[in-house]
Amino acid sequence: MPLRRTVHRLSQQRRSATTSLxxxxxxxxxxxxxxxxxxxxxxxxDYIEAAVRQALVKAFGEAGAAAAPMxxxxxxxxxGDYQCNAAMALAKPLNAKPRDIAQQLIDALEVADLCxxxxxxxxxxxxxxxKPEYIQSRITAMLEDESRLAIxxxxxxxxxxxxxxxxxxxxxxxxxxxxxxxxxxxxxxxLEFQGHDVLRLNHVGDWGTQFGMLITYLKEEVPQALADxxxxxxxxxxxxxxxxxxxxxxxxxxxRFDGDASFKERSRAEVVRLQAGDPDVLRAWRxxxxxxxxxxxxxxxxxxxxxxxxxxxxxxxxxxxxxxxLREGGLLQESEGAQVVFIEGAKNRDDSxxxxxxxxxxxxxxxxxxxxxxxxxxxxxxxADRVLYVTDSGQxxxxxxxxxxxxxxxxxxxxxxxxxxxxxxxxxxxGKKFKTRSGDTVKLKDLLDEAVRxxxxxxxxxxxxxxRGMGEEERAVARKVGLGAVKYADLxxxxxxxxxxxxxxxxxxxxxxxxxxxxxxxxIQGIRRRATTSTPISTSDPxxxxxxxxxxxxxxxxxxxxxxxxxxxERDLYPNRLCEYLFDLSQRFNQFYEGCPVxxxxxxxxxxxxxxxxxxxxxxxxxxxxxxxIDVVEKL
Length: 636
What we know:
Layout: H1 3-24, H2 44-65, E1 71-73, E2 82-84, H3 86-94, H4 98-108, E3 119-121, E4 125-128, H5 132-144, E5 159-163, H6 176-193, E6 197-202, H7 209-221, H8 243-259, H9 261-276, H10 279-303, E7 308-309, H11 319-328, E8 333-335, E9 338-347, E10 353-359, H12 367-380, E11 386-392, H13 396-409, E12 417-423, E13 426-427, H14 444-465, H15 472-491, E14 499-500, H16 503-506, H17 514-534, H18 550-559, H19 562-572, H20 576-595, H21 604-627
Parallel strand pairs: 5-6, 5-11, 6-7, 11-12, 13-14
Antiparallel strand pairs: 1-2, 2-4, 3-4, 8-9, 9-10
Helix pairs in contact: 2-4, 3-4, 5-18, 5-21, 7-8, 7-9, 8-9, 11-12, 12-13, 14-15, 17-21, 18-20, 18-21, 20-21
């Protein structure tokens, strides 16, 4: 009987015993029900944790039910695959030696269908090692399902809103938008892969005083920019104004606004007309938004990022209602003519109470008001379970305040999870703010174009050494390498850290870079092509997986870690952990390839097994890079 069926049968036989145990222990947590190995979705850690919870209840009653399973990945391969530290934490409550507790826990632990017999190390650590048969069965399942690698979707899907990118109308996207855009996109990809219902929102800055200022300037100085040449509402017209022109107009309008009181007054009057829905002002506003939106889309198409735009203007009609709800809830207070909510547990530097301003003295609303309206809309209309805000770390205090007020006012129900996902700055190689030589902010499109140019130049040199030239296929590869390098360099860093932008480092074929990972994939594909010429591999009738050499077993164990890496990323939202996994996997593959000949394997069975390991490794790299928004190349 095939291993997977055998294990599933054993699990079925034991299910009744474990179920009765869980029901007998009334103090046990509700999630003690343990999945059968055949249904573990490639996440043995979840299975082991559930088994440990049941063993804790069985061995120690109420004290065990209150204890955490404390199952982690083993710190060293010689310790096995997982380590349970629960005995250490129970020593004081049970007034017993940790090793004695560990032995009692092992005696009650039922993981024989998944693991070799556990052993105790040190003062009371329990080491668990997956059975080779289980590892073989999982590798076979991954081989049969290269698109998902037999990773099950979540059994508890959530509605998740991810708020990211968020450029401003009438401004070009710059390097500062890079991190929000690609971090947000990666989180969406992972959450979608895990089976969640994800709404990708682009909270564009498309409302406010700046529009009155810009429209006033264009009407007075460049009226042709707002001309409706073809008579169609919202058309970009005769003057063929591009985003560069618009940015320059914005700078000049800001200068006028700051230095000309009359211009400032006229600009504010335009804002009032805009908010009141004046048709002419709305048409001008739509023109500006449409022009900016088209330019933003160019960047999103280059990066392969999909978003649904929902700017600040979307929430404009809801702002008055937010103020009323804050007033009815007794939270709204007046401070120096403005309407504010005082923040609990927070003080200013002068020891005064910290306040969140929600309405200015002139009746205008703030970003905070819009964010509160967005929280309510996402909770009530979108029915979100979780909302992620991917912005720079400088906005941490703002979101702390908004989240607190949303909770206290009831705009955010207790069930709604609100999370700020902060990230650090992109710096130049000198560690200072990343700017052009002239001191201007680096435009995102220029940055991406330069990465592609350098990648193409490097490829052209290497091809010239081989006596070949660049064709369309090679240029397409260079484009993937350049764009992938920019993304991976950012995502491989802890998102909360600042990082130094270096084309040389990110385009290197050495180290934890996109080109290195893309080369690893292309190399494995080459190995597969050569091997399958003589030994075809069928995913519908996969070969028996042989894991006799230590490097084979180590590679297989590393391949099995992907589902748990993705679960951790889903929970903690750090994409660099997937990059670290990929780099570790590539190292393990190199060790495997050096120690385990594929084409020169001793037998056909062994060759087929090793080709299968190559196939699963390639599929794992491809899937992982895809979740990072990076395309693979078959040859490099």
